Amino acid sequence: MNLAKVRPSLLGLLASGALLGLALPAAPSAAAQPQANVESVDFVTPQIGFAVIASGDAAQPAPKLYETVDAGRNWAPVAGGLPTQSANPYMGATVAFATRSDGIALMFAGVGACQAAWDAYRTANGGRTWRPAGKILGSDGPIAAAAAAGASPWLLNGSCAGPYAQLYRNSGTTWPQARMFQLSAAAAKTHFSPSAVSLQRYDGRRAFLAIAYYPGQPGPGTPLITGFGTASGGAAWQAVAIGSRALRGTVRAVGFYSAALGLAAVATQNGSTSLQLTRDHGATWLPVQGVRIPNAGYIPYVRSIQWLSPQVADVVVGQTLWRTADGGGTWRAITQAWPN
């Protein structure tokens, strides 16, 4: 289906403070039970979904693939798991499934100076076996992966060096750039590189994507969100206006079902994060009630946002999977204890 998420490779670095030069509290003692790191969650239907979970145990950090058939109440390991390599083990993974059988795994292979690399694999049997599907050399920015039945998978990658995002489309064993989405010269004067991206595919031809940009001024600032829709399988895209003037802070995660209906996790300078909902193209944003987001400072606690329909959406906050079945009006916690 589709996924809008924080890139998993950043989670460990941000948690340790390595990217920020922070002296964070010491890690729990060895006697304490480490928490699982939820890297990617993707539902095919409201009942059937997949999750990539990395053990909190430093001795076994490799991500593993799990499946649920009861809407996230229980998760079971998928036999065969995710692709591995003995030399330079993968640092994280993102998955996107078109059906319960057909899916793609993007294994994070390394990061450089504003660059990131992924090894792509495809499965036709629900993750039990995988075949190579090429390599991607992109930007060390936010990503969103999406798959649609009967169509090639896509990857939307926000730049870390400029006000644009690039869309890659799998073509067998290669990932050519299909489109670059760039801010106008005027908008680029007030906003920086993308802080979050989302990619929603309804079928092989119709899709909608959203790109949120860092405010280009000190202080809370106002983020900018741009939207684009296609009904031609990505051959042509139409820009759609999304309002964000009511938001203050940095959009750390974003997920739009359509130009009208979307969610944004907005972080402020004091470390608090609020989940905001719009149903009118961003003209108004309402705080989501009931979803608890801990004050995590710089750590991106909202891991992913996914819309399954205009009524059903999932948000992963830390260790909790929240779901709404009424378009964001009410939410309930489904998964609070992940396999580890």
Q: Which CATH top level class fits?
A: Mainly Beta
How many DSSP H or I helices? 2
Which overall shape is indicated by the principal axes computed on the Cα atoms?
A: globular
Average pLDDT taken over every residue: 86
- And the CATH topology? Neuraminidase
Describe this structure in words.
About 8% of the residues have low confidence. A five-stranded antiparallel sheet has the order 1-22-23-24-25, with no helix packed on it. Strands 2-3-4-5 form a four-stranded antiparallel sheet, with no helix packed on it. Strands 6-7-8-9 form a four-stranded antiparallel sheet, with no helix packed on it. It starts with a strand and ends in a 5-residue tail after the last strand. It has two helices and 25 strands. With 340 residues, it is mainly beta. The longest helix has 8 residues. It has a single domain, classed as Neuraminidase (6 Propeller). Helices cover 4% and strands 44% of the residues.
Write the layout of secondary structure elements.
Elements: E1 4-5, H1 9-16, E2 37-43, E3 49-54, E4 63-68, E5 76-77, E6 92-97, E7 103-112, E8 115-123, E9 131-138, E10 143-146, E11 154-158, E12 164-169, E13 177-182, H2 185-188, E14 191-201, E15 207-215, E16 224-230, E17 238-241, E18 250-256, E19 262-267, E20 273-278, E21 286-287, E22 302-307, E23 313-317, E24 320-324, E25 332-335
Antiparallel strand pairs: 1-22, 2-3, 3-4, 4-5, 6-7, 7-8, 8-9, 10-11, 11-12, 12-13, 14-15, 15-16, 16-17, 18-19, 19-20, 20-21, 22-23, 23-24, 24-25
